[in-house]
């Protein structure tokens, strides 16, 4: 069971691009996320995995929108020395029926999302909102047409996400996902994702996230 992608918060696009440049990674696409007051950068890794970085774009969130901007700002304020802070993680479920079974068992919300432009096909998302209070839980995602096929002008050759440190009970996470996610390292507490490690074919791995 593989990690699909990890969402990280940045203070600005410039700050995020600086971190990525030092890591040898580049951006494949970006967009304004409607109604959230956030824009994103998408960084493709191997095997369909992604890093998705959110940063404030100056727009006010729409009334009733999920409070992702507020969550990001709280985390950034709490960790002023850190540049990219993991906020959420997603685990890919290969079979749609299995995703819907897990959603029913755990009373997860299920959302059918349309394509988000070239190279980013439609997907089915389960569990969004559950991590507002239980930050350690991942969303589950299924790609009916296959995971995104994106490329970027990386200076290094990424293998993919090889480890994620999550403050949360491993048993609850594994039950939620229907098995142990590859690379999961559970830490004491319930604060959620803390660090994510990306491996490369041409040198040592790079860790994004909290330094404490």
Largest sheet: 8 strands, mixed
State the secondary-structure class.
alpha+beta
Q: Largest sheet, order of strands side by side?
A: 2-3-4-1-5-8-7-6
Give the C-level CATH assignment: Alpha Beta
DSSP, total strands: 12
Q: Over the alpha carbons, how many angstroms does the gyration radius reach?
A: 16 Å
Distance between the termini: 28 Å
How many domains comprise the coordinates?
1
Proportion of residues in β-strands: 35-45%
CATH topology: 2,3-Dihydroxybiphenyl 1,2-Dioxygenase, domain 1
Could you state the oligomeric state of the chains shown?
A: single chain
Poorly predicted regions are: none
The CATH homologous superfamily is called: 2,3-Dihydroxybiphenyl 1,2-Dioxygenase, domain 1
Encode the helix/strand succession as letters.
EHEEEHEHEEEEHEEE
Protein name: Glyoxalase-like domain-containing protein
Organism: Kribbella albertanoniae
InterPro entries: Glyoxalase-like_dom
Domain Glyoxalase-like: 3-169
